[in-house]
Design goal:
The chain is of the alpha/beta class. The chain has a single domain, classed as Rossmann fold. The protein is built from 5 helices and 5 strands. It has a 5-stranded parallel beta sheet, with helices on both faces. The radius of gyration is 13 Å and the shape is globular.
Length: 124
């Protein structure tokens, strides 16, 4: 029996970034779903199981901090990797306190590096 494809939820309101990430992950055999706001993200998370969540903190409707807090409050243990423009130490600490597994600052990391990181994280 073939192994089930890994699934990644990309939560980012910047369509070009989300789409590029999705295309590169799909090419590597990883299924993706995209949510462009926090409300949609929480809806998808309540209906589907993911192997990894890539989360931007600056989102319309419900921000990423609230999304992360809700995920953890529901007891969902899925690893969450933050990819955001927020680079203040207090934002990084807040995200880690809320249960983020990793924190990447968008300007410091390329999409290719994010894809490589995701592949290493979930393809075991």
């Amino acid at each position: 029996m073939a192994a089930q494809a890994k699934k990644v939820l990309i939560i980012d309101d910047e369509k070009p970034i989300a789409r590029t990430l999705s295309i590169k992950l799909n090419a590597g055999g990883i299924e993706t779903a995209i949510a462009e706001d926090g409300e949609t993200a929480l809806d998808l998370i309540s209906k589907e199981r993911y192997d990894l969540i890539v989360l931007d903190l600056l989102l319309p409707k419900i921000d990423g901090f609230v999304v992360l807090a809700e995920i953890r409050k529901k007891g969902i243990k899925t690893p969450v990797s933050i990819v955001t423009d927020l680079s203040q130490p207090e934002d990084i600490q807040k995200a880690k306190d809320l249960g983020a597994n990793d924190y990447f600052i968008s300007s410091d990391i390329s999409i290719t590096e994010i894809v490589e990181y995701i592949k290493k994280s979930i393809v075991k």
